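Morning F.,

Quick status update on the modeling queue. The single chain you submitted on Monday has been processed. Sequence for confirmation:
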Amino acid sequence: MSIRFLTAGESHGKGLVVILEGFPAQLPITAEEINFDLARRQLGYGRGGRMQIEKDQVEILSGVRKGLTLGSPISLFVKNKDYENWEKIMTPDPGGESSGNPLKRPRPGHADLPGGLKYNQRDLRNILERASARETTVRVAAGAVAKKFLRSFNILVQSYVKQLGPIGSKQIHVKNGKINIYADKSPVRMLDKVAEQKAMKFIDSAKIKGDTLGGIFEVRVTGVPAGLGSHVQWDRKLDGRLAQSLLSVQAVKGIEFGDGFKNATKYGSEVHDEIGYKKSKGFNHLTNRAGGIEGGISNGEDIVLNVAKKPISTLKKPLRSVDIETKKNLKAAYERSDVCAVPAASVIGEAVVGWVIADAFLEKMGGDFMDEIITRHKLYIKHLLAY
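Structure tokens below.
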């Protein structure tokens, strides 16, 4: 069994839509549960003015009846409240009003130029509207459904910010299942309160300079059984699928599993996780430097991903660019933007990771309704303990 989703919509269009296909029947889900994650995505110190305009709320259009999924496609809609200010510009009807100032100066680091070249667009707004990270709103909505499904099997997907610009946080140990509770209380989703204050000051400094900041966040998945994914084909490897999903998030430029980059500098004897056995738990690993995946298959330990997000490419003090019509050297265009969106990106990371884990879980367990899947999961856990 496989699940998939498809999104549609532009940043300043009427709204955003996502269709989820393949989810089992009888999963309890409500708009309020999805809205909880949508609100988390909009928080974070350094966000721009649009977060004051949009208070994202999902409307469930199909696939759910009386709070339970039907097994049919689920469609979710999030209205863009700012559309009323853009309706004449973004109307799908012929003869709509010109923006008056079509985007001709592509922004370095954005999809503007390569998208314009690929699709032969002379107004680069036709690229930026879809390339915008606003699209992740409905990916977070889809991920909220996936994470609700996983919680039925005590699988939790959590995240926090490890570094913001040059400000890194100390490793803070938090009880299992409490990471999001603590991270969501922080304006920058950091667990280290000292680093949190330094990061906020650095964001203030970047804002004054008209600049932007990136950072690193961690996504951690607990409760994943061994055996998700496969070694037999490249596109079935769980780490490959997770990397693709995260790299598809706007501005994400690097993925590390466990201690991946640090491990590259060490001897093998210092890297590989030794194996142990306890009758009550079955096989386990004495460390988790691999980040919970070996040979493309989950090994029963926490799945740990470190994700690097580059600074936002829209700068209040723009970099050099070239007008696509006149070919003159000019400053790049400026659109209303955030200074820092790393805290929001960590919530988006949860969503896309949760979706892949849910897909791999259903692939392994099978089943079309929740009780059937729960029974198969229990049998599989018995197999792992008896192996």
